[in-house]
Give the backbone structure.
Amino acid sequence: MEKRDAEAKEAAEAEEVLWNKETVSKVMKIVCTCIKLPQKDLISLLLVSPWLHRTLTSHPSLWLALDFHEMNKAGDRLVEALSLPRYTNVKCIDLEFAQDIEDKHLKILKIKCVNSLRNLESLNLNGCQKISDEGIDLVTSISPKLRAFSIYWNVRVTDVGIKHLIKNCKLIRDLNLSGCKNITDKSLHLIAQSYLDLESLDITRCIKLTDTGLQQILLKCSSLQSLNLYALSSFTDEAYKKISLLAHLRFLDLCGAQNLSDEGLCCIAKCRTLVSINLTWCIGITDVGVIAIAQNCNSLQFLSLFGIVGVTDKCLEALSDHCSSTLTTLDVNGCISIKRRTREELLQLFPNLKCFKVHS
């Protein structure tokens, strides 16, 4: 009797081991690959059992991203993670507003983890204000395949840092320099010469830039699909008119473009592929410019005319005639010459409208 009980117990234990080793691992593989669990959940699963640990770490596709968004001690965490075998092929690193990351951490990476970043394609350093030009050189020098680089809100970055980026990374397609107030036209010249296939550029609040630098971008980076010129009041129609050269442009942010005139906007209207245009506080615009956009940009989905007192119901009628089937968001808050309408009246003009903001 005792022998049979022992054999039964042994069989049950063997079955449990087999279950943990095979079934649980197979199920977790499916769950992790199909659902795309967050990084912290994946790491927690590694501790469940040795079999699950082996299963998860044997699938490189699960370990292609590192997310330290807003985390404390991000620099130390990054170095520690990239020292692990499972992150040898990481493609995406998010350090947006991560705390405590400095140039010294990037220097350690170059010394100890040089092979870990050889396949890196996307690096987000937004809000990492302790990173300098030297840090950019350190991390980009070991990331030759980088395609997306973002370093929003960093006043330590200068033209020197952009020069390092261009020297080290030849494949950049997406570049966010928003808030880097110390870069000048020199950086835009370098970008225009080196990144002819650039698809997205954000130079929001880069206050030292002028028409000269922007025109170089517009003349040479003809593949641009997204251009963010938010809060840049120094540009004039001389540069704005050349936006018309961007045949593939889809997203354009001109918020605060105080020197943009109807003549400049009529040129921009030649970008027929535009789906989103932000004209908030473009105070020099009237119905003439907006009607040109309506007549030419028939795929328009988003339009903001916030704060423009020179537009009237005439432009709304033109938008209804030409963009009624596509427009989903329209902001005319502060456009005092556009009359208020009921929801039913708006839907008659724009049947697919989901968001409409009008002055109170």
User: Anything to note?
Assistant: The first helix runs from residue 2 to 35. The radius of gyration is 27 Å.
